[in-house]
C-alpha cells in the first residue's frame, strides 16, 4: 500500500527541483558564476599583500613587516613591489596561473572607521551607511535574467537581501523535517510576507543538496568557512543551481598580535587560502566560468600599533580570482607609504573605488548594463566606471 | 485572554509558561512594571558557576596544557610515533564543558524565570555591552561578565553599568585594552614575556567601541581625535596576572598621564579617576540617551523604531540621569508598543526559550543539544559575531536556512513531546486571540497531535512576538 506520506514525499522531491522561485536558473540564464566573499573585521592589506619594495614599508610596519621574497618567511613574489603573504600559497598558484588579480589601495567610498557603518555601506551599494535595506548584489540579481542567489550560512547578509528571492544553506545536525509537515507549512506560510519566499527557496536549496551536510561538523570559526566553500562549489556547479553565492568570513579585526604561526590572522589567511582551493575543486569545470570577489570593509593602519597589531584604517586589498579572471597582475595606482602619502597621516590612501570592481564583475558575470548599474545597483554612481580588462 | 496580555507575555516576556498568560491578563502592564522594578530572584542555576576571579585562570591553565602537549608531540615526532590530536580540539576539550555549563544555566533560567521581562532586559543589556567567546581568551568569562557587570545594574543606573562593563576583565580583554599602554613603553624583558603583554603604545579598540557602540553612537558627535585621546585616557586599565591577581587592575606605570580634552572638555584628573570622569560624562550625554532609546525601541517595539517612542524613552533617560527602571517604565508606556501584535520576529535564542517555556518536558534537553541547535539557527549563545552584538531586525534572522533549521527543531521537539500535549490548547494559552484562523485550522486538522504541535511551533505566529 502506498501511504499518503510516501506520495507527498515523492511530490515534495519534484517540487523541490522545479518551479519554485529563487535558485533555479532560467533556460536563457547565464552559465557564469559570481562568488562574493566578505572578510568582516577589516583585513590588514599590508599583511596579505606586503609592499616589500616600497622604501617606507619596513620602517612603518616594524615587527609586522614581511620580508622580501627569497628570504626565510618572506613574501611570495608578485612583482618588484608587491608580494603575497607566505600563508597564501594556493592563491599564489592562482596568480601564476593568471587566474588571480590583486587589487591594492582600494576602498569603498566610506571614510570613517566604524566596522558596522563600513560593512553596511559596502553591502547596500548607495555610498551611505543605511542608505537602503537592500544589498547591491540582490538588486543586481533582480536586474539580471534569471540567475539565482544563495548565501552560505543560516542567514542572508545584507549584500544579498532585497527584492530578488534568494536562498541560504548551511550544514545541519538535526534530522530532516517530515515532508508532510513541509507541505502543510507551505500552506501556512503562503501569504506570509516574511516567511513565504525564504521557505520556498530553502526547500529548493535542500533539494539541490540532496541531504548532504547532515550530521555536519558543528562549531563555527575558520574551519566552517572551508566547509561552506565546498558547499558553495557543489551548488554552483549544478546545472540548475544558483549562479551567485555569498560567503561571510569573520574574525579579521586584528588589533593585536598579528604575527606568528598561531595568530588569528595567520590562521584566517590559511583558511582563506584553503577555502579558495576547496571552492575551485568543488566547482570542477565550472571554475572556468567563475569569478570570486574577496573584499573587506576597510584596510588597517599602515603603522604597527602599540600591541603588534593594527587599528582601523581606510584603503586595503581585494582579490579577484577564478577561471573567468584575467589575472597574474597587481592592479594598483600605488600611493606609497611615506608620511605625506597617507590618508589622515595614518592610513593607506584609497586610489580605486571598490564599486568599479563590483561593476566590472556584474557586467562580465551577470551581463548587466551600465544604466542599471548607475541608477539601481549603485545609485548615483555615474562617476565610477567599471574597471576595464578585469575579466576574460 | 486580552490582546495586551498576549503582548506582555510574548513581546516583552519570553513566551508563555504554563498559566502565565492567564496570570498576566489581570493587569498586563502592571505585571511587567513590577518586574522592571523588583530585585532579581536568586537563581539556583547560577550557584555553582565560576566567578571571573576563578574563570580567568582557565585560559592560562589551558596554555600550560597546550605547551605540555606540544612538547610531547615534538618528542613523539622525533621518535617516529604518530602525533595525536591538534590544537583546536585540545582547546575545545578544555573549554566546551565550561561553555555548556554557562549556556545550560542561562537557558534554564530563561525557561523557568518568573520575571521574564526582567530577564529580557538582562539579555538586551548584555547584547548592548557585547563580549564574545569568539575571542578564545575570554571564552570562560563571557557568562560571569553578564552576572557581574550587567545583572546587578539592570535595576540601577546606566553609568554604573557602563563603568562595570568598561572595567570588567572580559571587556578589557575582548577589546584589547590590556594591550594599550603609554606610547613609548619599552617591551618587557624576554623572561617576563609570558606574563606581560608586549605592548609599546596605544590600541584604540576599547575607546572606539565605547564611544560608537556603548554610549554616543556612531553619529553621536565624536571624532577620530576623540577616539585617540580617549584611548590615551584608558591606558593602564588592564587585568592582573590571572593566576596571581585575577581581575581588573589599574597600572599607573602604563598610564599616559596628563590633562586630556575629549568632546571639547578638558579632564585634569589623575590616574583612573580621569577615565571614570570621561565615562560618567559619556553616560550623561544626550547622544547616549538617544542611542540607547533607539535600540530599546527597535528591540521591543518595531524594526523601524517609532520616533515618538524613541523620544519618550530618551527623555526618561535624560530626565532620570540614566536610571534604568525609569527608562524601562517609559518603554512600557509607549502606546506604539501595544498597537501591533506580532510585529517582531523572535531571534533564535528567544525562539528556543519560548519553546522551552511552553513545553516543560523540553527543558530536559541536554545543553549540548540546545547549543548546537542554536548554532545552526545562526545564534550560538555567547558567540556574537562582533562587538556590535546580535542584530535586532527580522531581515537579519529570516534567512531561508535559518527558517529551515527552526522547522527541523520544531519537528524534533514535537516528536519528543509525545501526544500528551494538546497543541490547540497550547496555542490558545500562549497567543490567545492572536492565533489566526488558518493556523488554528491547520493545527486542528493535523494528522496527529505531534504534527499539530510541530505546526504550531513553526507557525508564523509563534515565530513572532
Mean pLDDT, all residues of chain B: 94
- Give a short account of the largest sheet of chain B: 2 strands, antiparallel
Provide the low-confidence segments of chain B as ranges: none
Please tell me how large the radius of gyration of chain A is: 22 Å
What are the low-pLDDT stretches of chain A, counting only 5+ consecutive residues below 50?
Answer: 1-22
CATH architecture call of chain A: 3-Layer(aba) Sandwich
N-to-C order of helices and strands of chain B: HHHHHHHHHHHHEEEEHHHHHHHHHHH
Looking at how many chains there are and whether they match, the oligomeric state comes to heterodimer
- Can you write the helix and strand succession of chain A as a string? HEHHEEHEHHEEHHHEHEEEEHH
The percent of residues in helical segments of chain B reads 55-70%
User: Greatest interface and its residue counts?
Assistant: A-B, 69 and 66 residues
Would you kindly provide a written description of the structure presented here, covering whatever features stand out?
The complex is a heterodimer of chains A (392) and B (465). Chain A has one domain: 3-Layer(aba) Sandwich (Alkaline Phosphatase, subunit A). Chain A is 34% helix and 13% strand. Chain A contains twelve helices and eleven strands. Chain A has helices spanning 4-17, 45-48, 57-61, 89-96, 115-124, 136-143, 179-189, 196-209, 221-237, 264-283, 354-366, 370-377; strands at 33-39, 76-77, 83-84, 100-107, 149-152, 166-169, 244-249, 290-296, 316-321, 329-331, 352-353. In chain A, strands 1, 4, 5, 6, 7, 8, 9, 10 and 11 form a nine-stranded mixed sheet that branches. Chain A starts with a helix and ends in a 15-residue tail after the last helix. Chain B is mostly helical. Chain B folds into three domains: 44-170, no CATH class; 175-284, no CATH class; 348-458, no CATH class. Chain B contains 23 helices and four strands. Chain B has helices at 3-12, 20-25, 28-37, 52-55, 58-78, 87-112, 116-128, 142-150, 158-167, 169-174, 205-214, 224-233, 272-284, 286-300, 307-319, 324-333, 348-358, 367-377, 394-397, 400-417, 423-431, 437-444, 449-458, and strands spanning 237-239, 248-250, 260-262, 265-267. In chain B, the strands form two sheets. Chain B has a two-stranded antiparallel ribbon. A two-stranded antiparallel sheet of chain B has the order 3-4. In chain B, helix 6 (87-112) packs across helix 18 (367-377) and helix 14 crosses helix 15 (307-319). The model of chain B has no long low-confidence stretch (mean pLDDT 94). At the A-B interface, helix 5, strand 6, helix 7 and helix 8 of A face helix 6, helix 11, helix 18, helix 19 and helix 20 of B.
